[in-house]
Design a protein that fits this description.
Elements lengths: L40 E7 L11 H14 L3 E6 L5 H12 L5 E7 L3 E3 L2 E5 L15 E3 H11 L3 E7 L27 E5 L16 H9 L6 H15 L7 E5 L9 E5 L2 E5 L17 E7 L2 E8 L2 E10 L4 E7 L2 E9 L5 E7 L2 E9 L9 E7 L2 E9 L5 E7 L2 E9 L5 E7 L2 E9 L5 E7 L2 E8 L5 E6 L2 E2 L1
Parallel strand pairs: 1-2, 1-3, 3-7, 7-8
Antiparallel strand pairs: 4-5, 5-6, 8-9, 10-11, 12-13, 13-14, 14-15, 15-16, 16-17, 17-18, 18-19, 19-20, 20-21, 21-22, 22-23, 23-24, 24-25, 25-26, 26-27, 27-28
Helix pairs in contact: 4-5
Length: 475
């Protein structure tokens, strides 16, 4: 029997702003709860300029200015200038010790960065690298930072890497070391901003700060959601470099974050809610009118109704990989009736809630090993759960109960040969009490284990008992 557990990855947009509420919710309710937990914000800021090999002008300036700005915004900062090999371990330990579950972690690095075989390294200023083998022992590996963030269980991680300069050690390497940095596999809840696209090179800059960092500092004074603020950084850097340098952002986060506090609509006014305050805020606002808009993301495009810069109403999202969703949205997630079509031809029509298949719907499979198969029925959290019918292209069919994508409960299985079973099913197998009727009319009534008849009676087509079965054997 086939296991029918389907993995479903929904695309989430990167625009996270305050939700609209119904028009009846016109009263303001702002409260600070007694059990609100202060959200601790910790930053690690490193600027490396004084390299023995190929020194840089701006990174220490960048680190000083970013650290000063973050302190004004409520961050506790672990700051290092010209990090040496001996300081790497102690610096990571200090940073790790300050992080707390549910808090916010931020990492900023300016200096040389290099990649070897897809791994990113930030070399210490005293690194004496004459071969690839020296890199790991004399550099801060980006993977080390990601491990610290993952272990800390913070709710939000922001990583800024102004480290996409040329590799000054590449001539001594046997293998080809790519320019710039490689893409990073980050923990959940992490947003990474590169000074330029992965694999590309950014300039150190001719002013007091590097180009990328100067534009990032400007956005730290804004009340924009972090994703929107970083889009402003991209636009500013591209314009200043005449398109030669384009910052890059990847990852995903949940919840809100604004450097200088998020703006929340309060009645007919806007109120700035500093994100570092230990408060829980419930705002009720007048309803907003949806505007037909086009939103562009790094991995796709949305066209449809938008409220408060979120997808609300009806719209179409097309992913760069060919996947497509058309239907209803609420607070940036597929919610309501809709159709999701995968690039391989798979298709789901039905109910959605919070970006997942929830409710009643029909799933049909296109190309691949499941081509032509079909499920119609109840869904919960992207899995068949409830009552439903699954049909195979060869004529086989199951109708009955489902739990977590598995045929489990009471059901009817029928085969193209004309055989039929009605009774208990567990994880897609015939287990329990039931009746198996063959195409010839004979029946087996009793208990089954792992698709085999074990205890009961065999009846002929006229209903007469022809045999008794005990432990799988005729008596």
């Amino acid at each position: 029997m086939k296991k029918l557990q389907i993995s479903f990855l929904m695309m989430l947009g990167l625009l996270l702003v305050n939700p609209a509420h119904s028009k009846d919710d016109r009263n303001l309710a702002v409260s600070q709860t007694n059990n609100a937990i202060s959200e601790k914000r910790i930053a690690l800021v490193i600027g490396n300029s004084a390299y023995t090999n190929s020194p840089l002008k701006n990174p220490v300036n960048d680190a000083k200015d970013v650290a000063a700005k973050l302190r004004k915004l409520g961050f506790e900062v672990v700051e290092r200038h010209n990090l040496t090999t001996k300081q790497i371990g102690r610096t990571l330990s200090e940073f790790r010790s300050k992080l707390v579950p549910g808090g916010v972690a931020l990492v900023f690095y300016a200096g040389h960065g290099l990649q070897i075989k897809g791994e990113n390294y930030l070399p210490a200023v005293d690194a004496e690298i004459s071969a690839e083998e020296d890199v790991a022992n004399q550099s801060l590996a980006v993977r080390q930072i990601m491990d610290v963030l993952d272990d800390s269980k913070t709710r939000l991680n922001l990583v800024f890497l102004d480290a996409c300069r040329n590799n000054p050690y590449s001539r001594s390497f046997r293998s080809a070391a790519g320019d710039g940095l490689a893409r990073i596999t980050a923990p959940s809840g992490t947003l990474i901003s590169y000074a330029t696209r992965p694999g590309s090179v950014a300039e150190d800059g001719i002013g007091h700060n590097g180009l990328y960092t100067s534009k990032l500092l400007a956005q730290m004074d804004s009340n924009l959601q972090i994703e929107l603020a970083l889009k402003q950084v991209v636009t500013a850097v591209k314009a200043a470099s005449q398109g030669k340098q384009e910052p890059w952002m990847e990852g995903s986060i949940e919840g809100d974050f604004c450097f200088a506090g998020c703006i929340t609509s309060v009645g007919n006014q806007d109120a700035i809610v500093p994100s570092q305050l230990p408060v829980q805020i419930a705002i009720q606002t007048p309803s907003k009118i949806a505007i037909r808009s086009v939103l562009t993301y790094h991995n796709g495009r949305y066209e449809g109704d938008v409220v408060d810069n979120k997808r609300n109403g009806k719209g179409v999202y097309t992913s760069s990989n060919g996947d497509r969703y058309e239907g209803e949205w609420a607070n940036d997630q597929q919610t309501g009736k809709g159709t999701f079509t995968w690039s391989n031809g798979d298709r789901y029509d039905g109910d959605f809630a919070s970006g997942r298949r929830n409710g009643k719907g029909t799933m049909t499979w296109g190309k691949g090993q499941w081509e032509g198969e079909r499920y119609e029925g109840d869904w919960a959290n992207d899995q068949q759960t409830g009552k439903g019918t699954f049909t195979w292209p060869n004529g086989e069919r199951y109708e009955g109960d489902w739990i977590n994508g598995q045929q489990t409960g009471k059901g009817i299985k029928s085969w193209s040969s004309g055989d039929r079973y009605e009774g208990d099913i567990v994880n897609g197998k015939i287990i329990g009490k039931g009746i198996f009727t063959s195409a010839r009319g004979s029946r087996y009534v009793g208990e089954f284990v792992n698709d085999f008849f074990t205890n009961g009676v065999e009846l002929d087509s006229n209903g007469r008992v022809v045999a008794t079965i005990v432990n799988g054997k005729k008596q």
